[in-house]
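ugh ok fine here u go
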Amino acid sequence: MTAPAQRPPYGAALLVGAAVLGVYLLTLAPTTAFWDTSEYIAAARVLGIPHPPGNPLFVLLAHVWGLLPLAADYAVRINLFAAATSAASAALWFLVAERWMREIVEVRWARLASAAAGVLVAATMWTVWNQSTVNEKVYTVSLLSMALVTWLAVHWGDDAPGPHRDRWIILIAYITALSSTNHLMGVLAAPAVAIYVLWTDWRVVTRWRVLLGVALAVVVGISVNYIFLPIRAGQFPPINEGEPTGFFSQALLEFLGRAQYQKPPVTERQAAFTSQVLNYLQYFGWQFARDWGRFARPFAVIFGALGLWGLWTLVRRDRRAGLAALAMFGTLTLALVWYLNFKYGFSIHPGEPGLPREVRERDYFFLGSFAYFGVLVAIGFGALLRAVAEAAGGEDSPRWAAGAPVLLLALVPLAGNHGSASRAHETAARATALDLLESVEPYAILITAGDNDTFPLWYAQEVEGVRQDVTIANLSLLNTRWHLRQLRRREAAPFDTAAATAPWRGRAWPRPEGPVFALSEAELDTLPEVIEVEQGAGLRLDGLALRFGQPALFLNDLGVLLLIRDNLGRRPIYFSWSTGAYPDQTWGLTSYLATEGLVRRLVPGEIVPGDSLILSEGLGYMDLPRTRALLERYRWREVARERRYGWVDVPSATMMNTYLIVYGTAAATFLARGDTAAALAADSVAAAIDRSTRPTGRPTAGGPGPAAPQ
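structure:
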């Protein structure tokens, strides 16, 4: 085991981190994106609480970061937060790789070059790159904490024994505990750090000052969960998922325990473990050259072999570092796959459509695994350079240079992923949010389906201040009591007629009084989870005849029913087309719904077809003048922009497909009515959107999977 006297190469690490940050800046998202991006950006902006477990550390850090004048656009500032934290972790992984290679690569320039090459591979792996250019999740903060505690442990091992060194252990414990309040991914370095510490000086854990200091550090670290969450939840911010009010309350404990998702224990496998491992290997196969289609897999084999060789070499030449590295590798692969216990992956086993599947690809959960693997690739590069030097007859510096060309392999992920990992110029999520909000009348209730049609609306309202008069009711979240309560509590902002788009501009719109639910919060809490009804029967609400399309109504159905009952004639009610046939199949409302672009307006009486309201093929009744006006104003160019590799994230393509269906159906309807110009215009948009979602270059690895459920 080496006893190094060399100073860590902090300057080189800074240069590596800056280079990685440069790559991310060139490919940074200019605004929000689908999935959780909008939720987290908006939560940072309003100091809110995102979905369980709430990620309070992220919210606090991102909120402070968002106050810095780094960019005019708030979303760009938070996306920069993801880029900066990921680039900082790359610099720390560089330090770890360089230190671990000292028993393998004696020549300093070769060691630095190998470490830089491996870290470049890690930073440009598809998932790492893709997650570092937009703040979709909280994982880049966890990645930073993993890299930081690993480096602190490595640096601690080189420090002289004494009280000064003991303080590093307390710092490591504190950062690990604090990171858990961002996400549990941050604690995944703990087994490797424990091995490193115990191998170096096991007596450290017997010193009472260390034990007391470590325990206090852990309590202080995790206290963020138990202090920030209940205090902020009790202030009812605009985004307050789970509403975990009350110190150590049942609501808080269930929120931190993610009870909302009802995930089974790991002993009850949601898919065969072999398939879960294959799913991980599928994601690993995407990492190195996803843009190159069938050529991606050979590069995954090459880099996989290089990383495993690096791990094996490290185990043989530096037992302490090797065992720690092996523990980290096992934790971030098989152990993590076992713990996560995912259903069958979205696109794995495509020939078996009946399998229970995740609603999207879950490669981002393995962000730390892929980034860490770059450290092993770096050591593999070093071992390869050493082998070349030995084959050349010696280990002096000139002979080490003979192997330098192999480091060019590090450029493969940069070249093979830049097309589909880049988020530059992608504004479709923001465009759909603005289009949806501008489709509805002032003070409307807009019923949406899930993450991708709801979170961007939250972003538009809370970050950009667009159409805060609209109340967003999410069908998925209506299954929770807290969403029902928050809808009742919400006060719609005054409608700004001067800033509005046509046809809402320049008119006086009366602001409705009272909450959207007539029931009190306490009464909403007593609603049953499910009630049995007679399928085919129904009820009348003023001029509406509702028909039950199923033998039971669930809590979200009751929420929709109450929204209709309490607001019909008081507030406009719309269903987003992203809810599909829900209002038709569940409530039999087809003859009361008029398509107006991307939404369907609920009208108080049965529709009588005429010149303006006609029955279309595919979209039910359509308000032709309103739909034509909306289709002309929609930001379809942002949705239909050229994408060489198509829409890589297949599950979120449902939002793109909504545009495609609406424009395509409208084109046929316009043509049937003799409006050839409008038909041609709508058809050309539909064709452009269709082209933009399909790859025009080589097909991406993984390919399309089954349709994503809403």
